[in-house]
Backbone:
C-alpha cells in the first residue's frame, strides 16, 4: 500500500515535468477516435488547415474565370488536367475530395504533407511535395471553382 | 507503517524531487556573469540568437551577418564586391549596382556598418556601409538583406569617415580620408598645401524609401579626415569628424603627420548648413557621381549619373564649423548616448579626451578661440574639455557605451578593452583581447539606446587563436559579457574579410520583418515569364532572349536548338516558386561570368556567349527537391551561319 502510494507520488511528480504540457494529454484524451496519425475523422475527410467542411452551391462562372487565371499562373507548372506531371492530374478531383480538403491542400500544403496519411502516401508516389504558391483564401476558393469544371 | 519502508519511500521521494529540480534548473537560461561561458553563448538547436551583429567585410567589400551570443555566421551580403555565389555584380540586373564614374568597379574595402535610427534608436530598417577605395556608400535593406542602393561620393579620396548617421537618419555623412585636388587636377604632389582639400559630405536619406542624395559638401582644409559621429539629444543638429595630418604632409606620414601634439575634431552645425543652403550659399561645383538603386519590382538596378554637387565654403558660412583641438592624431570620435560628451580616441596619445557639448557651445558664445586653421575657428582646448581618461592603455582608438554610465575604449597597442565611468573619468575595469583590438561594438552602439549586455571586440591579429590555415588567418572577434561589474570573455569566433566596425541590434527588430518571397504578381521585370505559357525563345539578329521558368523540378523550356556561335544569349530565368527558401540556381557550361541564384518570384538574367559548337547542358545548382538532379536541360550550339532553325519545347 505504502509502496504503491510512493510510486504514484513519484509518477505524479515526474508527470508534472516542470509544469506546462500536462493539460495536452488530458485534452487529447478527450478527443474522440483519432486515426493512427493523430487526426480526427473530420480532418481525414476535410484536411488539415484553415477551412472547415462546407457545401458547394451552383457553379459561379465569374469565379471559374478568376480561378482559371490563377491556375494558369501558379499551378500549371506542376499540374495538368489529364496526365501526371510533377503532381497528379486534376481532372475529376472535386469528385474524389471534399471542397474543404482541396482548399486546405492549396492553402496549407506543408502541414497536409506532414500529417495527412493520404497526402503522405502521395508524396511517396510523386516525390516532390506540394508547395504553397502565395494564394489567398479567395484565390483558393476560385481555383476550386475552376477545378469543378475539369 | 513499517519504519524501513517509510525511510525507503522518503529517500525515493527526495531523490525524485532532486532530479526534478535539477532537470528544471537545466532548462533555465544561465545568468550572465555567473555560470560558465559555454552555457552563456549556447543557443540550442532550433533556438534563435538574441542579437544580429553586422560586421564589415573590410577588404572583402561585403557585410557579414552573425548571431549573438553564438557567433554563428548567417550570411555574407554582397555589397561592393561581385559574388559568383549568387551572381551579384555578374548578372544583368545587378551589375549596374557597381557602376561608378571610373566604370564598373567589382571590389571595394568596406569599413563601417551603420544602422538606421529613429529618435536616436536603431530601428532595423536599413544598414549603411562605406566603400573606402572608390568612395561610395551603400544602403542594405534589412527586409531582404540585399544591397538596395549605392551612391558614389565625388570630390573624395578614400571614403573612410563614413557612413555615420544622425539621430533620425536625416543624413549619413562621409568624410574623405585622403585630401585631393578638388576638383581633380594634374598638379605636382608637393603642392599639397596649396592644391589639396578635404570634403565633408552630407547624404540626405529619404525617410520613406531610404533613397540617398548628396545634399551638400563642405570644403575643408587638406587634412586626413578619419571618423565621425552624429550628435544626439542636445547635440542633435551637429556632427563631429576627427582629423589628423594637420601638418599637411604628403610623404612619409608616419613621421611627418605625427608632429603636432593636437589635431582636430571638426564640429559641424548641419542645421545651420541647411539654413545657408536655403539662403543660396551653396555653389554648384563639378562632382560626377553615380546613384545606383535596386528596383524590387523589376528586380533590376537603375543607374543615374549626376554631374554636380552643391558645395558650402566655411569662409562664407560663419558658425558652420569649429575645430576642437584633440591629442594626438585622434582616430575615433564617439558621442555618448546622452549627447553631451564627445569622446576622442587619442591613438598616439595615452589619453582619451572628452569634450563637453555644452561647454563647446559656451566657448563659442564667449569666443574662446586660439586662432584659426584654414579660416576655421579653433576653440581653446581647456574651454571645451570635460575630462581626460588616463591609464587607458596605449593606442586608444574607439569608444562604445553601455547606456548605464560606462564607456569602453579599445586600446590597440596594449590589446585591451578599458572600461571607464562617464563623468568621473576613472578606469574601473580592463580585459585583454587577442590580439590588437581595433573597433569594438555594443549592440545599439552609436545610438541613444545601447543594449549593454555584450561587447564584441574586433581584433586585427589572430596568430595562434585558431587551428592554423597557412599564412592567412581568419580575423578573430571576441564576445565579452559586460552585464556585470567585471567584463568576462565568453567566446572567440572567426570572421570573414577584415571586420573594422560592426553594429548590433536586437533580433526582434529585424527577424519578424523578413521578406520570404517576391510576389509573382508584382514582378515587373521586362523579360519576366510569369507562367510556363509565357516561356519562349526569341531571336533578334545575333541576340537571343530565352524566357525561362523554373519550378521544382524542371526548366521550361529545357531543350533549345538553333543557337549559333557568335550569338549573345540572355537566359532570363523567372523562378515561379512562391515558397520560402526555394531559390533555384542556373548554370550553363562555358559561362564566363557566374551562376544565377534566383529567389522565389524573381527574374535574373545570365549573359552567355557560346564560343564552341556542341550540345551544352544547363542545370539547377541549388539543391531544391528530391528530383533536383533531374532539373537539367540542353542547348544546342551550331556553327556560325548554320541553318538549324530556332526551336524550343
Residues:
Amino acid at each position: 500500500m505504502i509502496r504503491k502510494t510512493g510510486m504514484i507520488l513519484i509518477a505524479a511528480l515526474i508527470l508534472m515535468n516542470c509544469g506546462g504540457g500536462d493539460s495536452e494529454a488530458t485534452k487529447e484524451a478527450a478527443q474522440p477516435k483519432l486515426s493512427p496519425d493523430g487526426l480526427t475523422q473530420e480532418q481525414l475527410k476535410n484536411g488539415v488547415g484553415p477551412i472547415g467542411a462546407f457545401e458547394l452551391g451552383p457553379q459561379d462562372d465569374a469565379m471559374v474565370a478568376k480561378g482559371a487565371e490563377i491556375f494558369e499562373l501558379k499551378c500549371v507548372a506542376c499540374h495538368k488536367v489529364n496526365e501526371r506531371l510533377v503532381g497528379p492530374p486534376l481532372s475529376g478531383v472535386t469528385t474524389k475530395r471534399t471542397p474543404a480538403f482541396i482548399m486546405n491542400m492549396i492553402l496549407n500544403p506543408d502541414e497536409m504533407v506532414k500529417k495527412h496519411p493520404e497526402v503522405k502516401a502521395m508524396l511517396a508516389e510523386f516525390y516532390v511535395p506540394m508547395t504553397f504558391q502565395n494564394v489567398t483564401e479567395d484565390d483558393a476558393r476560385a481555383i476550386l471553382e475552376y477545378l469543378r469544371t475539369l | 507503517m513499517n519504519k524501513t519502508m517509510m525511510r525507503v519511500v522518503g529517500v525515493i521521494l527526495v531523490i525524485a524531487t532532486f532530479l526534478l529540480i535539477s532537470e528544471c534548473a537545466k532548462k533555465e537560461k544561465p545568468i550572465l556573469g555567473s555560470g560558465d561561458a559555454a552555457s552563456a553563448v549556447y543557443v540550442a538547436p532550433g533556438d534563435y540568437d538574441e542579437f544580429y551583429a553586422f560586421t564589415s567585410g573590410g577588404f572583402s567589400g561585403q557585410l557579414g551577418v552573425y548571431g549573438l551570443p553564438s557567433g554563428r555566421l548567417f550570411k555574407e551580403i554582397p555589397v561592393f564586391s561581385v559574388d559568383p555565389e549568387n551572381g551579384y555584380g555578374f548578372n544583368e540586373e545587378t551589375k549596374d549596382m557597381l557602376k561608378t564614374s571610373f566604370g564598373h568597379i567589382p571590389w571595394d574595402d568596406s569599413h563601417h556598418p551603420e544602422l538606421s535610427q529613429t529618435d536616436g534608436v536603431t530601428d532595423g530598417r536599413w544598414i549603411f556601409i562605406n566603400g573606402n577605395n572608390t568612395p561610395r556608400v551603400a544602403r542594405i535593406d534589412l527586409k531582404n538583406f540585399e544591397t538596395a542602393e549605392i551612391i558614389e561620393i565625388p570630390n573624395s579620396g578614400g571614403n573612410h569617415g563614413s557612413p555615420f548617421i544622425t539621430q533620425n537618419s536625416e543624413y549619413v555623412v562621409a568624410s574623405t580620408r585622403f585630401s585631393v585636388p578638388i576638383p581633380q587636377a594634374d598638379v605636382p604632389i608637393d603642392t599639397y598645401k596649396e592644391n589639396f582639400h578635404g570634403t565633408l559630405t552630407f547624404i540626405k536619406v529619404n525617410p520613406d524609401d531610404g533613397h540617398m542624395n548628396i545634399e551638400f559638401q563642405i570644403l575643408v582644409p587638406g587634412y586626413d579626415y578619419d571618423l565621425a559621429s552624429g550628435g544626439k539629444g542636445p547635440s542633435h543638429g551637429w556632427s563631429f569628424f576627427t582629423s589628423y595630418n594637420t601638418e599637411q604632409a604628403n610623404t612619409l606620414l608616419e613621421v611627418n603627420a605625427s608632429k603636432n601634439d593636437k589635431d582636430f575634431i571638426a564640429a559641424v552645425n548641419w542645421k545651420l548648413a541647411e539654413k545657408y543652403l536655403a539662403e543660396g550659399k551653396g555653389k554648384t561645383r563639378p562632382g560626377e557621381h553615380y546613384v545606383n538603386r535596386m528596383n524590387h519590382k523589376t528586380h533590376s538596378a537603375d543607374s543615374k549619373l549626376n554631374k554636380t554637387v552643391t558645395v558650402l565654403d566655411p569662409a562664407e558660412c560663419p558658425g558652420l564649423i569649429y575645430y576642437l583641438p584633440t591629442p594626438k592624431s585622434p582616430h575615433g570620435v564617439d558621442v555618448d548616448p546622452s549627447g553631451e560628451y564627445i569622446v576622442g580616441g587619442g591613438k598616439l596619445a595615452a589619453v582619451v579626451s572628452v569634450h563637453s557639448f555644452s561647454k563647446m557651445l559656451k566657448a563659442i558664445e564667449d569666443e574662446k578661440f586660439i586662432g584659426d586653421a584654414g579660416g576655421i575657428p579653433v576653440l581653446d582646448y581647456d574651454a571645451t574639455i570635460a575630462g581626460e581618461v588616463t591609464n587607458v592603455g596605449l593606442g586608444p582608438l574607439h569608444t562604445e557605451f553601455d547606456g548605464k554610465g560606462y564607456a569602453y575604449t579599445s586600446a590597440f597597442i596594449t590589446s585591451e578593452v578599458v572600461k571607464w565611468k562617464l563623468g568621473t573619468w576613472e578606469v574601473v575595469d580592463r580585459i585583454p583581447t587577442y590580439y590588437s583590438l581595433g573597433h569594438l561594438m555594443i549592440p545599439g552602439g552609436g545610438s541613444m539606446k545601447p543594449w549593454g549586455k555584450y561587447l564584441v571586440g574586433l581584433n586585427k591579429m589572430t596568430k595562434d587563436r585558431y587551428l592554423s590555415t597557412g599564412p592567412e588567418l581568419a580575423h578573430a572577434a571576441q564576445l565579452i559579457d559586460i552585464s556585470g561589474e567585471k567584463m568576462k570573455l565568453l567566446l572567440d569566433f572567426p570572421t570573414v574579410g577584415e571586420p573594422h566596425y560592426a553594429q548590433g541590434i536586437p533580433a526582434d527588430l529585424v527577424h519578424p520583418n523578413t521578406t520570404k518571397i517576391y510576389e509573382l504578381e508584382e514582378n515587373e521585370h521586362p523579360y519576366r515569364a510569369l507562367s510556363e505559357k509565357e516561356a519562349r525563345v526569341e531571336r533578334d539578329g545575333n541576340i537571343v532572349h530565352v524566357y525561362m521558368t523554373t519550378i521544382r523540378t524542371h526548366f521550361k523550356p529545357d531543350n533549345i536548338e538553333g543557337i549559333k556561335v557568335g550569338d549573345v544569349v540572355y537566359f532570363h530565368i523567372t523562378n515561379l516558386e512562391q515558397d520560402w527558401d526555394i531559390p533555384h540556381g542556373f548554370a550553363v557550361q562555358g559561362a564566363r561570368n557566374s551562376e544565377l541564384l534566383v529567389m522565389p518570384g524573381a527574374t535574373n538574367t545570365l549573359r552567355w556567349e557560346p564560343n564552341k559548337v556542341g550540345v551544352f547542358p544547363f542545370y539547377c545548382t541549388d539543391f531544391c527537391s528530391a528530383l533536383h538532379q533531374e532539373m537539367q536541360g540542353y542547348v544546342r550550339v551550331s556553327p556560325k551561319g548554320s541553318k538549324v532553325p530556332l526551336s524550343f519545347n
Notes: Residues 56-513 of chain B form a domain with the Methylamine Dehydrogenase; Chain H fold (CATH 2.130.10.10). The two ends of chain B are 88 Å apart (CA to CA). The first helix of chain B runs from residue 3 to 27.
